[in-house]
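re: that complex we talked abt at group meeting.

here r the seqs, copy pasted straight from the sheet so there may be weird spacing, ignore it
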Amino acid sequence: DAGITQSPRYKITETGRQVTLMCHQTWSHSYMFWYRQDLGHGLRLIYYSAAADITDKGEVPDGYVVSRSKTENFPLTLESATRSQTSVYFCASSESGRDQPQHFGDGTRLSIL
Amino acid sequence: GENVEQHPSTLSVQEGDSAVIKCTYSDSASNYFPWYKQELGKRPQLIIDIRSNVGEKKDQRIAVTLNKTAKHFSLHITETQPEDSAVYFCAARGQGGGADGLTFGKGTHLIIQP
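got the structure back, here u go
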């Protein structure tokens, strides 16, 4: 499980600021995912990536930007943070996007004031 | 897109009894159904998964059943122990729309009473 790490673990910022959450995996998994977790909503997919330079939208992509220049990294950027983006963000990876297990990082708790 | 419903939202059972959590999904093309356990402040951890070509899978005290016709799947935990207390999430992965991520249920808070 130590193969996927997220940073920072906690972040407080203000509305309108840009913030980037980092995700790094050492398994060489081709697929990476970003989810947000909110009370009453469970986990919802924001963006995912099938390989370097290939990304696609999930269920709730508005207000977020992703990139994947290297297989091991998948940063998530909030270009202009809003209070509704206060959440716990989880990164995950899998060998493929098909019927392979997804393994989650420890999460980033983001508060936007 | 896929929609996953999970019931109950809270389940309290006596230690040693069995617990059953049920989920339904909407996309008949979904082919992969994992279950995650999440303790407070921790990451979701995969505990068992099942693929659409299998009807049942067991791993010690945990089992999952899948009914493709009815589009529902269930998690069964036998001989529950205090360490089973956590929030459990079901999920489904469909094949449509190009989305390779998981659609999760809203979770079940399992409480094991001593």
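couple things i noticed - The CA atoms of residues 8 and 69 of chain B lie 21 Å apart. Chain B has a mean pLDDT of 92.
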